[in-house]
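# nightly structure sweep
# worker-07 picked up a monomer target from the shared queue
# config: single-sequence mode, recycle default, output format = structure tokens
# input follows
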Amino acid sequence: MNRFYTRFLPAIVFVLVLFAVGYAFADTNSLEESGAGDGQNAISGYTISAIRYTLNATTPTTIDSVQFNVAPTAGAQAPNTVKVQLNGGGSWYPCTNTAGTTWSCNVSGAAVLTATQLRVVAAQ
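# output follows
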């Protein structure tokens, strides 16, 4: 019985290695391009432009809303969901599509002094 194992053990190990290599090559993922992005630099899938802040008319130290354009890049579709954050770790504000690629976010009460960034998250 020992002779059987010693004779066929290298062949069995070779077959197992072949199965493992075949599985590794077969386990790749390919996804269609979609629009989603988050970050401080270029957002893959979308270009953010024409950013406009509207200050409160009575208390100009607070921001009422933020508007901007969200244009899909090649292969991406228009987003369904857009949210913004005005400071790291702060509240997320939902946005509404007002016309075409223009989105508006009601951020009433956000202090100008604490607005340290505009972080936009957009997804289909």
